[in-house]
Amino acid sequence: MFKRMKAVRRPLFWFKMMMWALSLVIAALLIQLGSLIMSDVPTAGASIQQKDFEDTARLTPIIAQTKQISDQLKQSKRDIEDAEFKLASARSDYANGRATFENWIKTRSATESRAENPEVIARTKNLEQLKLSERVAERAIEDLNQSKTEKARILADLRNQIAVIRAESALPYEQARKLQTLKVFLFRLAITLPLLLISGWLIAKQRGSKYWPVYRGFIIFSLFAFFVELVPYLPSYGGYVRYIVGIALALLFAHFAITAMSRYVQKKQAEESKPETEKRSLINYETAVKKITAGTCPSCDRTYGAKKDQDVDFCVHCGFCLFTKCTKCGDRENSFYKFCGACGEKSNDGHLREATPA
Ligand SMILES: [Zn+2]
Ligand SMILES: [Zn+2]
């Protein structure tokens, strides 16, 4: 069987590879330049923050007051701690005083009457004084606790007010942010769209141009710009825009693909109705050699072999002549070969047998 074979000249192959490398280099340079331009142009301005939309005139005094009250609250907590120490000390003073008094009275009660004794009266008064101090310390803590509770309530109210004022800024902030997103997107669209239009024009009109590798670099660059510099900045609006743009692109792509396909089918049909000599002159030499060795008919693009491992000289679908015998040595050769591979006989149209008329 035939080895898979390429009729492209080797230097041409490397030249093609080089041209691809050139396209990629051009694309890379353009991408670098583009991102440099994008970073220098003020696309977004300062980023918007919710803070910028808060009612500062109302907020500032409330925040100041909050700070003041919260400082006071801290101070009251410290005061309560101090007062608790004082209370503990007063309690232990009273307990000690009472124990001393009771011991003293036990030793005295045996000998003297308790009533109307001036020393007993003095000691009792002293004990009462200690009890009173304890009560005063307790009262002080209660007062401090009450004041602390009041301050905590005031603080909670102030914090609520701040939250309410801040919440009011959410809507204008959201609107401004949306507008900003839209602005950024439109700006980027204004830069990217011309690139895409130029690329579309290049693809449609300049594909055969000898400067195609350069244009291809530009097209790669514009695709990169589209997917990296534009698509991520599509405003979402809950996904609407993204999906609509996606659907539009898919439809556009489908339109081009379907048109290209029907154009291809029409071209092939028109070609098939032509006489074989004309068909041959329309087919590129390199392509034809490649297709025939790969098992595809160069005329109708179908797989020509009816059975595996069976030599077929004509396409079973369109009757196109694929293989012929050398006029000199009779070796079977690709009908596009210009010389016989076995004897070197020039083939030209000598190889070609007229296809049977349809
Ligand atoms: Zn065919
Ligand atoms: Zn020959």
Descriptive notes:
By secondary structure, the protein is mostly helical. Among the domains are: 55-168; 243-273; 276-334, no CATH class. It is built from 8 helices and 2 strands; from the N terminus they run ααααααααββ. Strands 1-2 form a two-stranded antiparallel sheet. The protein is rod-shaped, with a radius of gyration of 49 Å. Residues 326, 328-329, 331, 340, 342-343, 345 line the site of one zinc ion.
**Major pleated sheet:** 2 strands, antiparallel
Q: Output the structural class.
A: mainly alpha
The proportion of residues forming helix, as a percent range, comes to 55-70%
Give the total of beta strands: 2
How does the overall form come out from the CA principal axes? rod-shaped
Q: Topology as H/E string?
A: HHHHHHHHEE
Strand order of the largest sheet: 1-2
Average of per-residue pLDDT values? 85
Q: Unreliable segments (pLDDT under 50, ≥5 consecutive)?
A: 350-358
What is the CA–CA distance across the termini?
Answer: 30 Å
The distinct ligands, each listed once, are: zinc ion
Radius of gyration, in Å, reads: 49 Å
